[in-house]
Amino acid sequence: MIRDLISGENISLILFFIGVYGICARRNILKTIISLNIMQASIILFFISSHTGASYPPIGTKASLISKMDQIADPVPQALMITAIVIGISVTALCLTMFVSLFHKYGSTNWGKVKRKRGEHL
Amino acid sequence: MIQSISPLLLYVFLPFIIGMTYYVTGKTFLKQLSLMSSAGLIAYTFYLKSVHGLPVYGALISVPLPYGMSLKMDELSSILILLNNFLFFITTMYGFDKTYFKKRFAFVFLSLQGIINAIFLSTDLFNLYILLEIATVLVAILIMTKKENRSVYDGLIYLMSNLVAMAFFLMGIGYCYKLFGALNLDHLKMAINAVENPKVLLLPFAFLMTGVSLKAAIMPLFSWLPRAHATPSAPSIVSVILSGIFIKTGIYLLLKIHWLFGDQLALMPLFLGLGYLTAVLGFVFAIAQTDIKLILAYSTISQMGLILIGIGYNTDSALMGVQYHILSHGLFKSLLFLCAGVLIEHYHTRNITEMHHLWKSSKPLSITLIIGILSITGAPFFSGSISKALLSSTAPSFLMTFISVGTLLYYAKFFNVIFSFDTKPVVSFNRLSLKRHQWASLFMLSALCFILGSFYQPAITILLNQPLPNITYYSFLKLISYIFTYLFCIIFYYKIVKRIKLLDKLKTFDLSFNAISIALVLFFTGILSYLLIQ
Q1: B201, B187, B183: which is closest to B262 by C-alpha?
Q2: How many other β-carbons are positioned within 10 Å of the β-carbon of residue B16?
Q3: What are the residues whose beta carbons fall under 8 Å from the beta carbon of B426, sequence distance 6 or more?
């Protein structure tokens, strides 16, 4: 029964909400960026474990059937996710750059402390 | 196989190429060329609307739909594209000789014009995701233009809260693909309508709605907006673009999501509840503020609530009101933001209580400001009144009056800027110095506010291409009641509202990033539980 529960969809939902927990509960800006990355990774898992119609997903237990039968893996999620990975990398790089400049200005990695210090500069 | 290139691609690539060439070569005539390109795109849109006929399709790859990609311009997107290119025309004209309008700024700014055009032309959920993500990055760079103390923090909050929202949006797209195998909006609509058990639509709807609601600054998810739209590091032309058109991308997506899921799920109570909440809390926050740009930013939130109410009612006249209000709000809010930028430079402060006697400093600017205020408060013969008449044709009138009174209350503050009866006149006034092209952009915006209000019949027929609903737009009674309500509101504001202590606490209200995320999760669970109870 537990084996049935371990599917791409369920694992990616759990991972997604682990990421959401991270952005809600962690005050460290760096950990927030990491949590955001966990969310993005979970979405990638979700997409490539999903498939439509007669085609099979490229990963998972069903993927082994692809070579045996005249099947190909669903190409659309793979194409979409390559784009999403590229975007994820660039926005992470931007977030980290801004974080470095924020750290130089305020000398803290904590959202609360940075907010308090920003208030002083008003 | 080489396909013929669709002319719709011009909307995306023309501004981008001009910005890129300017960045590389630095030739100043390219700034004038960007003005001409915006004007050309406006003219081409009018040609498509009136002569060619809508919708216009442009295939991007040779694969047929639902797997291919295409651009499509329909009536709604043509209005938004007109507004977008017009606002970029005005802002480029207003700011092209400012010190911040350098190569890098111009490149990012003009790219944003192309990206926003692309958002309104896109027919595909995943393309929308990518375009919104690029636009988020561009806006984050634009609001950090002037290097001031707060700019990096404001930019980071804006960027990260929008990235989290877009992650929710992408998860929703994943569910749509998993369930229906299509990402094209038209095919999705057909697939969703064929669903027998609406329960499977709950998760995709909740994910998509959460992502889009943050983009449109619906009430619990509004906290990034005042920071982005009113940060001191952003020039006023960036605020104009953000409040005038960029926030409308969220509204456009809300319209699309309502169109996709509206037949299967009961969305009316949800949209109306969120709309009234946003409209009322928006003006309460606006009343509490004294920073002129923050007042305008919270006022944008309140107006988005009004638009959401119109989407919720979903009748023909309400949807026309939504389109007309998108247009008129874009114009008068841009006018007010430009005026606010001039006032901040003139008085060297952002505090509205320290600005006095504008009428004696500059009569033309006072008149422009008055036109903006009359439009947003829905005075007869100005653009806000038509859209509000259309929106309130289905809504209960006491609620709409309540929202109007709220709007009048915070615009009572501007009354004091212009006439200042309670302070003694200062002996010397600084003369306001604006260049000719800046006056021209202010004048064009105020003229359009007046035209859209006074000549609404041709405006509705030409722009919306729909017959006029049979409701009262103007009456003598409306004019009288407007004047008396405004006078009452000015007195009410200065005698009572200004002395409420609670408002001082709201003034410094500011959510941290963790609080924004928690609000996002609460919103998501709220929508999901609302749909489950149904």
Answers
A1: B201
A2: 18
A3: B356, B357
- Residue B88, classified by CB atoms within 10 Å of its CB into exposed (0-12), middle (13-18) or buried (19+), is buried
Q: Do A46 and B160 touch (CB under 8 A)?
A: no
Cα B137 from Cα B468, distance rounded (Å) = 40
Query: Nearest to residue B322, comparing CAs of B113, B474, B464, B473?
Result: B464
What are B403's strand-pairing partners? none
State how far the Cα of B409 lies from the Cα of B266, in Å rounded to an integer.
34
Cα distance from A46 to chain B (closest Cα, Å)? 7
Specify the residue for token string 């999705």: B188
- Closest by alpha carbon to B250, among B128, B121, B69? B128
How far is B528 from B204, CA to CA, in rounded Å?
A: 10
CB atoms within 10 A of CB B197: 7
Cα distance between residue B399 and residue B299, in whole Å: 17
pLDDT, one tens digit per residue, over B249-259 is 999 999 999 99
pLDDT tens profile B437-473: 889 999 999 999 999 888 888 888 888 888 877 777 7
- Rounded to a whole number of angstroms, the CA Rg of chain A reads 20
Are A95 and B156 in contact (CB < 8 Å)? yes
Cis bond upstream, residue A77 (ω within 30): no
Give A-chain residues touching B183 at CB under 8 angstroms. Answer: 76
CB contact under 8 A, A77 and B177: yes
Between the alpha carbon of residue A15 and those of residues A8, A10, B170, B205, B376, the distances in Å are 10, 9, 15, 20, 45
Enter the tokens of residue B135. Answer: 């636009």
Which of B160, B174, B514 has its CB closest to that of A47? B174
Rounded to the nearest 10 degrees, what angle do helices B383-391 and B436-454 cross at?
40
Of the candidates B241, B263, B250, B410, which has an alpha carbon nearest to the alpha carbon of residue B334? Answer: B241
The three-class DSSP label of residue A107 is coil
Task: Tell me which residue of B55, B145, B65, B137 sits closest to B105, measured CA to CA.
Answer: B145
Cα(B479)–Cα(B162) distance, integer angstroms: 42
Distance (Å, rounded) from C-alpha A83 to C-alpha B462?
40
From B127-131, B179-183, B425-429, B440-444, the region with the lowest mean pLDDT = B425-429
Encoded amino acid at B363, one letter: K
Tokens of residue B102, six digits:
């350098």
Which region holds residue B265: left if phi is over 0, alpha if psi is between -120 and 50, else beta? Answer: beta
